[in-house]
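Good morning,

Attaching, inline, the backbone tokens for the sequence recovery test we're adding to the shared suite. The designed sequence is right after.
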């Protein structure tokens, strides 16, 4: 949004500036200057709306630590999954396989550089992905897997895709949905690691060199390079929100990013 006016003691240079705020959807609100993030002049407002999700994707990459010639997988190609895929596609990976139920999202992942993309509901999807990973990397399973679908059932598929000593980054926020995991013999024999990731904090191992400000700057830079505006499929007036949510419930496969305009 744009700063409309300032209170006493606030630098008047704020007026007219385009800013980002972690704030609930409102057409106008009052906040403190330290809670605003000025949008760089070279980044369009429509690109800036992806900042929060891009910061999350950057955090996933920091937590997963992809290495050269590794194979990686991403379950879930909503906006967070696509942004994560976009960042991973910039690494010199041996293979990058992605999974989502909706063809439109799978096509977007291929455009970003994913090696292959699969419908997780297809009976042979997992086997085909593992075979491709083995062909490309020589390893019987992925080195690094991200679960960002929001579906607890997908976590078992992520575990099945991971190879020996594989890392599974759990980025989904399941809320009150229960998770039933198959942690039988293969999980232990394969020494698979489960890594929780949440953007409110940085992994302690990086705390000495990385700050939230540094991660935010990395997110701005990634937005410049990836420019995710291409994924805006719908624009609506904010007052139409009830109908929009109903449409998303009825036909989720049609949308990638929905934007409200005030």
């Amino acid at each position: 949004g744009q700063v409309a006016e300032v209170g006493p003691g606030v630098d008047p240079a704020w007026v007219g500036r385009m800013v980002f705020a972690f704030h609930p959807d409102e057409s106008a609100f009052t906040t403190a200057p330290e809670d605003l993030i000025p949008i760089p002049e070279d980044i369009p407002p429509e690109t800036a709306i992806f900042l929060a999700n891009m910061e999350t994707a950057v955090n996933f990459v920091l937590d997963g630590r992809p290495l050269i010639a590794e194979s990686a997988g991403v379950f879930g190609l909503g906006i967070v999954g696509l942004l994560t895929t976009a960042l991973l596609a910039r690494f010199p990976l041996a293979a990058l396989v992605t999974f989502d139920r909706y063809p439109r999202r799978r096509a977007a992942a291929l455009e970003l550089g994913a090696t292959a993309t699969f419908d997780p509901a297809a009976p042979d999807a997992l086997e085909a992905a593992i075979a491709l990973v083995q062909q490309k990397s020589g390893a019987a399973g992925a080195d690094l897997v991200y679960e960002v679908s929001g579906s607890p059932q997908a976590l078992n598929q992520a575990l099945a895709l991971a190879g020996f000593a594989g890392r599974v980054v759990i980025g989904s926020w399941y809320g009150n949905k229960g998770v039933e995991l198959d942690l039988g013999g293969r999980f232990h024999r394969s020494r698979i690691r489960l890594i929780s990731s949440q953007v409110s904090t940085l992994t302690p191992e990086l705390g000495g060199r990385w700050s939230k400000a540094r991660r935010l700057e990395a997110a701005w830079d990634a937005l410049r390079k990836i420019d995710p505006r291409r994924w805006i499929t719908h624009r609506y007036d904010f007052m139409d929100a009830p109908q929009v949510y109903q449409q998303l419930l009825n036909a989720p496969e049609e949308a990638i990013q929905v934007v409200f305009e005030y």
